[in-house]
Amino acid sequence: MPDIKHFDPDAALETVVRLFWRQGVASTGIQDVVTATGLNRSSLYATFGGKQELYLAALRRYVEQRSRPVFRRLAEDERGLPAIAEFFAGLIDARCSGEYAGWGCMVSNAHAGADNSDPEVRAVLDRHHEELRDAMHAALVTARAQGQLVPGCDPRAAADVLALLAYGVNLRSRAGADARDLSRTVTAALASLGGPAAA
């Protein structure tokens, strides 16, 4: 007879995402997960495995539900630099206000944490970085086609810089940086690529 789960694994995993996102994996014990989800250890282990498997599932869910849709919109946007400016404005708003203010980005937090040495975690982080950089590159290629970039601007190199800037926004916001200061930095970076078109 199959085991019947008396809880929603999807809802439980979303709770775990928020827990690891806010606290980090190193600061989160399995008892924290039990308390947050209301589930007992045996149910957690039977459904997700141990803490590391649970963290990986949460990290993958974060990327799939929070990162990829934003990257897709950016890559498919046909406005060029204004689309990139909008991406950063949304990022700063999400990191500095609302329910998740001060949490940073779960992926950026993982890059900065000790858990990034795990090969499976590293693979998730590397793939996320590629997708972020590729979305930036797609928007910059569109910007170049529309004459928005300064002469000599290399979209591939600029995409690398903007991806790193996104990580910087995430980490600085977690440390309490002011949204206006972050916005000024982003504005200066985009202005160096294309002047007024970046506004």
TrEMBL record:
<protein>
    <submittedName>
        <fullName>TetR family transcriptional regulator</fullName>
    </submittedName>
</protein>
<dbReference type="InterPro" id="IPR011075">
    <property type="entry name" value="TetR_C"/>
</dbReference>
<dbReference type="Pfam" id="PF16925">
    <property type="entry name" value="TetR_C_13"/>
</dbReference>
<keyword id="KW-0805">Transcription regulation</keyword>
<feature type="DNA-binding region" description="H-T-H motif">
    <location>
        <begin position="29"/>
        <end position="48"/>
    </location>
</feature>
<dbReference type="Pfam" id="PF00440">
    <property type="entry name" value="TetR_N"/>
</dbReference>
<feature type="domain" description="HTH tetR-type">
    <location>
        <begin position="6"/>
        <end position="66"/>
    </location>
</feature>
<keyword id="KW-0238">DNA-binding</keyword>
<dbReference type="InterPro" id="IPR036271">
    <property type="entry name" value="Tet_transcr_reg_TetR-rel_C_sf"/>
</dbReference>
<dbReference type="InterPro" id="IPR001647">
    <property type="entry name" value="HTH_TetR"/>
</dbReference>
<keyword id="KW-0804">Transcription</keyword>
<dbReference type="InterPro" id="IPR009057">
    <property type="entry name" value="Homeodomain-like_sf"/>
</dbReference>
<dbReference type="GO" id="GO:0003677">
    <property type="term" value="F:DNA binding"/>
</dbReference>
